[in-house]
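re: ur question from yesterday

yeah so i grabbed the chain u mentioned. its 200 aa long if i counted rite. heres the sequnce exactly as i have it in my notes:
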Amino acid sequence: MSQRNYPCDAQILVYFGNTSGDLNETGETAFKRQLYYCMLSQALVVKQNIELTRSQNRFGTLVWQFNEIWPTGGWGSIEYGNPRFPGQTVGGRWKPLQYWFRQSIFTDVVVTCTPSGLCFVKNDGTTAFTGTVTLNVTKFASSGPAETVSHCCVLSICLFKVLNPDCAWFQVHEAAVSLAPGAGVISWFNVPALAGIAWD
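ran it thru and got these structure tokens back, copy pasting raw so excuse formatting
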């Protein structure tokens, strides 16, 4: 795959390291594995960028290349098939990024942090929110030994634990939160454990 998609290969190595297998390997199984890791890497990159935008209270995010016009490993979040070609999904098949749009990236309630450890919970919904904020930090594959967590990312840990059970991760904050309804209702908090970490 390295001959076909250099940018994606770089992202796969950053997020998943050697757990993704040999990127020069060929064959159907290798191609499917690399394509799946590429789609997960795409979702992580877009998630990180949108959360950065929301953490700075900028309004609006434009999603470029929402759909693909054919089955591909491109950056669209939905893949549309053509009914004239057998084997293609007609009507759209969601890639991992589209699921994340619905489940976490564009939800009414979002939690995000700056590299200094200043974080907030934001409610853009029409109803009040009461719940628990749990922040986990995970080590990227490219950041060295597990005992030196120097490059980190706040995100849901489930994905990494499934793909790489040996990845380093730890909980850095948990607190109850209650937010009134309305656009832009924010509760700020500080997580000192995030300060001093090199963020990529």
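noticed a couple things. Confidence is low (pLDDT under 50) at residues 143-165. also DSSP finds four helices and nine strands in the chain.
anyway ttyl
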